[in-house]
Amino acid sequence: MSLNHFQKRSQRFILSVDIGQVRDYTALTMIEPVDEEYHVGLIERLPLGTPYPVVVERIKALMTHEYYVGKTVLLADRTGVGVGVTDMMVAAGMVPIGITITGGQDIGQNIQDYTVPKRNLVMALTLAFQKKKLKIQKDLAFVDILKEEIQNFRYEITETGRESYNARSGTHDDLLLSLAIGVWYLESGYSESQIFL
Fold first, then answer.
1. So where are the chain's domains?
2. Which residue, 74, 85, 121, is CA-closest to 102?
């Protein structure tokens, strides 16, 4: 695994994971906060059908890599099947901070888990792009897929007046959501109380 995408100057990293398996991919992004910028040095999408134990092994390999160990906060999507997968991470010796994505309006916190409206995740990512805080290496694996996901992401107001944030039909938003989870966490101020493996 190459780490040349990071400048080796940070004392902390954010690894965020959007869990999927059958219809959605598991997506991982690693962010290095540098001053007021967020440098993205890893974008990864595991193949559809990847067994959850393999997903957990991959996450643990990143968390225990000599460059990241002790300096990385792990954020894991706990929506749907994510609950069981984050339990597997804990059993493997990791300390994930759970993020449950909701359609609601309010952010909730329970010890080190959060419920976050999808709207808040998308808005944090949108603002980071607009403020040019996100620095994504152009030669990363899956960067073109991330660009496609951003282009295919839609905001709508439904007939019942609810906001909807989703990928266009037949497309994915896994990398986008993984990145949004990390950016939201950094922008929210919650990252000041960090938990490392």
1. 13-189
2. 121
**Measured CA angle at 100 (ends 98, 105), to 5 deg:** 135
Could you give the C-alpha distances from 41 to 58, 82, 131, 141, in angstroms and in order? 16, 24, 19, 10
Give the pLDDT confidence of 99-132 residue by residue, as tens digits.
998 877 788 788 778 888 888 888 898 889 889 9
pLDDT value at residue 81: 84
Q: How far apart are CA 165 and CA 173, in angstroms?
A: 10
- Phi and psi for 176 in degrees, rounded to 5? -60, -45
CATH topology of domain 13-189: Nucleotidyltransferase; domain 5 (3.30.420)
**pLDDT confidence of residue 65:** 93
pTM of structure? 0.83
What is the spatial distance between Cα 4 and Cα 170, in angstroms, rounded to a whole number? 34
**Exposed/middle/buried for 166, CB within 10 Å: 0-12, 13-18, 19+?**
middle
- Identify whether the C-beta of residue 26 lies closer than 8 Å to the C-beta of residue 45: yes
Encoding tokens for residue 86? 């984050």
